[in-house]
Structure formats: structure tokens, C-alpha cells
Write a structure and sequence with these properties.
Layout: H1 2-11, H2 13-35, H3 43-63, H4 76-100, H5 108-137, E1 144-149, H6 153-165, E2 169-175, E3 185-186, E4 189-193, H7 198-204, E5 209-212, H8 219-232, E6 235-238, H9 242-246, H10 274-280, E7 284-288, H11 293-304, E8 309-314, H12 317-327, E9 335-340, H13 346-356, E10 360-363, H14 370-374, H15 377-397, E11 402-408, H16 417-430, E12 438-444, E13 446-447, H17 454-463, E14 468-470, E15 476-477, E16 479-480, H18 482-495, E17 500-504, E18 510-511, H19 512-522, E19 532-534, E20 554-556, E21 562-566, H20 572-585, H21 592-601, H22 617-625
Parallel strand pairs: 1-2, 1-5, 2-4, 5-6, 7-8, 7-10, 8-9, 10-11, 11-12, 12-17, 13-16, 14-19
Antiparallel strand pairs: 3-4, 15-18, 17-21, 20-21
Length: 628
């Protein structure tokens, strides 16, 4: 019955108008009764003025857009609008009675009593509707009982949204580490304890789920919340991140599972990209490796900045198909061009550049998997070095103004062919002649969730109930989110000067073993239920990655979380001569001559000889040391 009444109010404005007309009529009659000691003298005057009053008031109500029936969302703004409508209607009614109809016998006290009663009834019926609707939603038998971590503004807003949208939660209390809040009631819900008390509170209140309502929580705070929730042995979820809420991309009540990026141990880095928009607007932009993790996210963000044209280049035809379908949803006048092409094919790239004349190029096409490239050394050199040489020359010849290379932290003191080729790529970019294109490099850490990276592999093993395989318990890596990686690329393009290599401050490196344990917890399992196996470092892998060479001079940029460095510049023609010597080794038998020539170009390159796939005695000793 209640739902039927609410539906009628929402869908039929005449129902709303009729109800409000009845309230206005009742207010006038009641005001008349109060004025004349609950008698009805001068009935002709009363009932002849009633239709006029109702019409004027409904016109004022319509003017202030109060003829809708969404009263279960009533707030302060609606109450103010009611007061405004009543005031305007009263002024119009008095003026009409005196100056148009020349009625002088209408009781003055009724002029005052009636609008007061009308305002009370119009606001009261709206507030009653909201209270009734919210009380109906609070059916504790069909909702999950939840505790909210945090008793701040975000938590209060989340509670209101949960009540309003009826999404299946019944909040029983807040927990907050501010002792002064304990015992307070916020929107009728009490603060029942601190975060550390959650395991005890879960049993006391028979809680089904914990909602982490701290959108600004740092990585360390989230780690603490997750650990305490796990001890309570109850499901937990979190509100979206603060930047997503502020940007309007999500609602604060859209609780989601905690993701591994929430637990990086540092705040996610937000970079202001306003300066990028002006640089990209109406320009022709090309992205190579467009179907990859970084390339596709670059395309998604670039197309929002309304370039004149966006050229997506990749030889992965299936990946390009899906990217084309996704970008087709963005209709802002940008021309979207999808080129299935091998960046190593100079003639094909020359044709693309001559046809479209790109202004800006983001080069994200490269082989990146270390163990695979150790077994395919010639292909790593061809794709990561000589394709870049061709692209730089083609871009320069066709008037490209800016070139951004995506490099890797594996380029620093490399032990792998992949890392060494990335280092040579950095040298190629930094040694470009001082005229023509502005060339910069961006040095990445590991990107969470990128194809073939450690996190998706471990997640797949968890889903398949397999042991988690880690090379060594000491291995640690720098991690960044895809959003951070793409923001760094775009910001590097905007602020990088010729020859710069820009690096994001990613905090401290994270042990892969710790990440594996976190993934186990987030999957709802315990570490006793999941085996962890150590396989030994593969060829080319290091225990610890680095972001800078010890000989590099690190300088700040206009963004505190981005640093820059300059590579020692070798004359470009000399570098090309040495690269031709490297090219000649590709036609020799075996990878040894290629590695030797790479070593001449990158003296810091120290090839790894450890390619075992069995658990060594040292690994076994370390496994025992970490308790596995």
C-alpha cells in the first residue's frame, strides 16, 4: 500500500496537486475556525475565496517546482522552497483580494494563520513521507547487519545513501579511533567502539559485513583495516577512492571489494593533467602498442582530451578490435584511426605518418617479458631497439613535434636483455639532435594488473586452487597502478624537456611474498589453505629493481612526485654506428655475440646465469626463515 501511494505521487502530478489543494483548503478552514472560536461565520466569504486561494497557491507551488512526488528525498532545500512558494502565494492572494476584487471584510488574522498552517502541512507531509519510506527500508530481517569503519562525513553520507537507495545494508554502528566520538549517535546510529575492537563487536552485534567508509585512507591504513577485518572473520568491503567520488565517477554508497592497489603501502598519486589538455587539443596523436595495458589506457584518456585525430597502432588485431569497440563510445568529434601494423615495418610506418602527419607520438610498443626475451635475444633487439630507430627517423622526417618513450626500471643496471634494450632505447632518445622533435623517456616500475605481470598470475593460481609460485622470498619490486602509469606518461609529455628521463616516486619496493599473502587474504582464504612454492630466480631476473643509476643526477620537477634525470649523451651518429655493429651480430649463430655487443653499449649490463627452475638449497633455507 505504501509503495502504491509513493508510485502514484511520483508518476502523476495531478495526484500531487490534488493532495496539496486539499491541504491548502484544510489550512484555510482551520485558520477560520481558530479565528472564530471554532465556528464558521461568513461562510459565503470563506468558500468563495477558497478556489482563488487554491489556484494562486498551486501556481506558486508549480513555479518553485514542488509538483513532484519524490517526497522521500525531501531535504532542507525543499522546505525553503515551500516557504518561498507560500510567501509568494500569500502576497498575490492579498493583492488580488484588495485591489482586484475589492474585498475588505476578509479577516486579517486569517491572512497570517492560513499561510503558517499551509507551510506546516506542506512540509510535514513531505517529511512524513521521507520518514515512512526510510522506516520501511530498515527491515532488519532482510538486510545485512553492517559496521562502518569511520564516523566522519564520508561514513555519514554513505549511511544516508544506503538508507535512501535500499541496497541491502542495515548499519548497526560506527567504529572510530577518536575516543571522543564513542557513544555519540549520528543519524540515529551509535559509535560503538574503536577499529581495534571490531573482532569483539562483530560477535556482540551479529554483524554480517564490515564497510570501510574512509575514502581517503592511505595504503598503510587500509592494510590495518584489512588485517583487523580478517581477524574478525567477516566479509569486508570499501567505498570508492576519494578522487573517483569527487569526480562524480561513482557514488559513495557503491561499496566494492578491497583491491590489491588499495594496499600499496602508500597513497595513490594524483597528477593534475590540466596542462596536458591544452597540449593535446586538436592535435594529431599516435599511440603505438595501443592494444596493450598501458597503450589502451593512454588511448582512453587521450581521446577524452579531444585531439584532432587519434591513431592507434598495434599488430594485435584482436586487441585492436576490442579497443575500437570501446573507444567508439566516445563521440566528441575526434577522428579515431586504427592501424594494424608492425612498428618494425619502416615502410608501413612511413605510409601512416605521411598520410596522417602526427604531431605527438607515445611509443608503448615493446617486448617486456624478461624470461621470454632471454630465449629470444635477436627479437628483443630488433623490436626494442631497431624499431625505435626507425620510428624516431620516420617521426622526425614527417614533422612530429614530441616523442615520448616508455622505458622500465629494468633499464637500470640491467641483468636481462630486455632491460638492456630499454637502456639503449633511453640513450637513443636522450641523444637525439637538438633540433626538431622534443624527445623524453618515462621510466616505469611494475604496473599492477598489466598482462602477464605477477598479480594476474597469482590471482589465476588462487582461482584454480593451485600453489602460488614465487621465484624467491627476497624478491621485491616497485609497483604503480595503471592510472598512475598513464598519468606519468601524459605529464612527462607536458613538462619533459629534451632528453629528460622522468620517474615517478613509487615509495618503497614491495616484497612479492607480501603481495601474495595479501591476495590470499583478499580471496577469503587463510595462508594455511594455500601453498606457496619458491622456484628460484629465472634468467635475467633481479632480486631488487632500481630507479636510478648511482651516477645519474636527480633533479626535481614542478610536480613533487616526479623526478627527472639526464642520461650521458653520446653523439647520435656515433651511437648509430655502434648500433650498426650490433645489427650485424643478429645474423651470427647464437646470442653470445649479441650479448657481448650489448655489453659494449651498456657497460652496466651484467647477464644473469641463473636459469634454474628447481628449488635450491638457499631458497629452501629462506623459505623456512619466512615461515613457509
Amino acid at each position: 500500500m505504501i509503495k502504491l501511494a509513493q508510485t502514484l505521487l511520483r508518476r502523476h502530478s495531478w495526484t500531487v496537486a490534488l493532495l496539496q489543494a486539499m491541504l491548502i483548503s484544510f489550512s484555510l478552514v482551520l485558520a477560520w475556525l481558530l479565528r472564530f472560536d471554532f465556528t464558521l461565520p461568513y461562510r459565503v466569504l470563506l468558500f468563495s475565496s477558497l478556489p482563488l486561494l487554491v489556484l494562486i497557491r498551486l501556481a506558486a507551488i508549480a513555479r518553485f517546482q514542488l509538483l513532484h512526488g519524490w517526497w522521500n528525498y525531501t531535504g532542507l532545500s525543499d522546505a525553503l522552497d515551500v516557504f518561498k512558494a507560500v510567501t509568494v502565494g500569500s502576497v498575490a492572494f492579498i493583492l488580488f483580494m484588495h485591489f482586484v476584487l475589492d474585498v475588505t471584510g476578509f479577516p486579517r488574522s486569517v491572512y497570517i494563520l492560513e499561510p503558517l498552517l499551509t507551510a506546516v502541512f506542506l512540509i510535514g507531509v513531505r517529511m512524513s513521507s521521507r520518514v515512512l519510506a526510510e522506516s520501511v527500508r530498515q527491515d532488519m530481517t532482510s538486510c545485512k547487519k553492517a559496521i562502518l569503519i569511520g564516523a566522519g562525513t564520508a561514513a555519514q553520507t554513505a549511511v544516508r545513501e544506503v538508507k535512501r537507495q535500499n541496497i541491502g545494508y542495515a548499519p548497526v554502528g560506527y567504529v572510530d579511533d577518536d575516543p571522543s566520538k564513542k557513544g555519540l549517535k549520528i543519524d540515529g546510529i551509535p559509535v560503538i567502539g574503536s577499529v581495534a575492537e571490531i573482532p569483539q563487536l562483530v560477535g556482540r552485534y551479529h554483524v554480517d559485513e564490515i564497510l570501510i567508509a574512509v575514502p581517503s585512507a592511505s595504503g598503510k591504513q587500509m592494510q590495518r583495516f584489512v588485517e583487523i577485518c580478517e581477524r574478525a572473520e567477516v566479509k569486508f568491503r570499501t567505498v570508492p577512492a576519494l578522487p573517483d567520488i569527487i569526480a562524480g565517477r561513482v557514488n559513495i554508497s557503491q561499496f566494492r571489494d578491497v583491491h590489491v592497489e588499495d594496499l600499496l603501502g602508500r597513497d595513490q598519486i594524483e597528477i593534475n593533467l590540466e596542462s596536458v589538455k591544452n597540449e593535446i587539443l586538436n592535435r594529431v596523436v599516435v599511440v603505438t602498442g595501443a592494444a596493450g595495458t598501458i597503450g589502451s589506457e593512454l588511448c582512453r584518456q587521450i581521446v577524452e582530451y579531444e585531439p584532432g585525430a587519434l591513431l592507434c597502432v598495434d599488430q594485435n588485431e584482436t586487441g585492436m578490435f576490442y579497443l575500437q569497440r570501446e573507444l567508439a563510445k566516445v563521440q566528441n568529434g575526434t577522428s579515431q584511426i586504427f592501424c594494424v601494423a608492425d612498428v618494425g615495418d619502416r615502410e608501413r610506418m612511413q605510409s601512416i605518418f605521411m598520410k596522417h602527419s602526427p604531431d605527438i607520438m607515445f611509443h608503448a610498443a615493446a617486448y617486456k617479458h624478461v624470461p621470454v626475451m632471454e630465449e629470444n635475444v635477436p627479437e628483443a633487439v630488433k623490436n626494442n631497439i631497431f624499431s625505435l630507430v626507425n620510428l624516431l627517423e620516420v617521426a622526425q622526417q614527417n614533422g612530429c613535434q614530441a616523442f615520448v618513450l616508455i622505458s622500465s626500471d629494468k633499464a637500470v643496471n640491467p641483468t636481462s636483455v630486455m632491460g638492456a634494450t630499454k637502456r639503449i632505447a633511453e640513450l637513443l632518445v636522450s641523444s637525439q639532435p637538438a633540433h626538431g622533435m622534443r624527445c623524453v623517456s618515462v621510466r616505469f616500475g611494475n604496473v599492477l594488473g598489466s598482462s602477464g605481470s605477477v598479480i594476474p598470475v597469482l590471482q589465476e593460481q588462487l582461482r584454480n586452487n593451485q600453489p602460488l609460485t614465487i621465484t624467491d622470498p627476497r624478491v621485491n619490486r616497485f609497483f604503480m597502478t595503471t592510472q598512475e602509469a598513464v598519468s606519468l606518461v601524459l605529464q612527462a609529455f607536458a613538462i619533459g624537456e629534451r632528453g629528460d628521463t622522468l620517474v615517478l616516486d613509487m615509495g618503497s619496493p614491495i616484497r612479492i611474498l607480501d603481495l601474495a599473502r595479501t591476495l590470499i587474504r583478499l580471496s577469503g582464504k587463510t595462508e594455511q589453505q594455500v601453498d606457496i612454492m619458491f622456484t628460484g630466480l629465472r634468467e635475467g631476473e633481479k632480486l631488487t629493481e632500481e630507479l636510478f643509476y648511482s651516477t645519474e643526477e636527480i633533479s626535481p620537477t614542478s610536480f613533487p612526485k616526479i623526478k627527472k634525470t639526464r642520461n650521458p649523451v653520446m653523439p647520435y651518429n656515433d651511437l648509430l654506428t655502434r648500433l650498426e655493429e650490433l645489427r650485424a651480430t643478429l645474423f651470427l649463430d647464437g646470442a653470445a655475440p649479441i650479448r657481448a655487443k650489448i655489453k659494449e653499449l651498456v657497460p652496466e649490463y651484467l647477464p644473469s646465469s641463473n636459469c634454474t627452475i628447481t628449488v635450491t638449497r638457499e631458497t629452501e633455507r629462506l623459505a623456512k626463515a619466512v615461515g613457509l
